[in-house]
Structure formats: structure tokens, C-alpha cells
Write a structure and sequence with these properties.
With 60 residues, the chain is mostly helical. Helices cover 77% and strands 0% of the residues. It contains four helices and no strands.
Length: 60
């Protein structure tokens, strides 16, 4: 799961997903709508997913 979340934070991942969407016939508007939906879901997951204790200890 860490590898996936790290990759989703990288701009190149989003650029690659957008280019794949265009390859399969999505318009710019459709690709933008999908990216916004994915961002919303990721935000909700981040809100409700608990942090493990090791990460909490490293906070300032």
C-alpha cells in the first residue's frame, strides 16, 4: 500500500494515467473529471485511515 500511495503522490504517475486515458479515447474533460473523482476518494481515505504508531512518533 505504501508503494501505491507514494506513486500516487508523483506528478509523473498522474501524467501517465492521463495519457493512458487519452489513448483509450477519453476527452480532456472526462480525464479531468476522473482525476478529480480519484482525488476526492483518496482524500476521504486519508481522512478515515488511521496512522500507525510508528508514523505518529516521528511527528514534530
Amino acid at each position: 500500500m505504501n508503494v501505491t500511495t507514494q506513486r500516487l503522490k508523483e506528478g509523473s504517475t498522474w501524467a501517465g494515467l492521463a495519457s493512458l486515458a487519452m489513448l483509450f479515447g477519453a476527452s480532456v474533460e472526462e480525464a479531468s473529471a476522473v482525476a478529480q473523482a480519484v482525488t476526492a476518494v483518496a482524500g476521504l481515505v486519508a481522512i478515515f485511515m488511521p496512522e500507525n504508531k510508528t508514523n505518529a512518533q516521528h511527528r514534530p
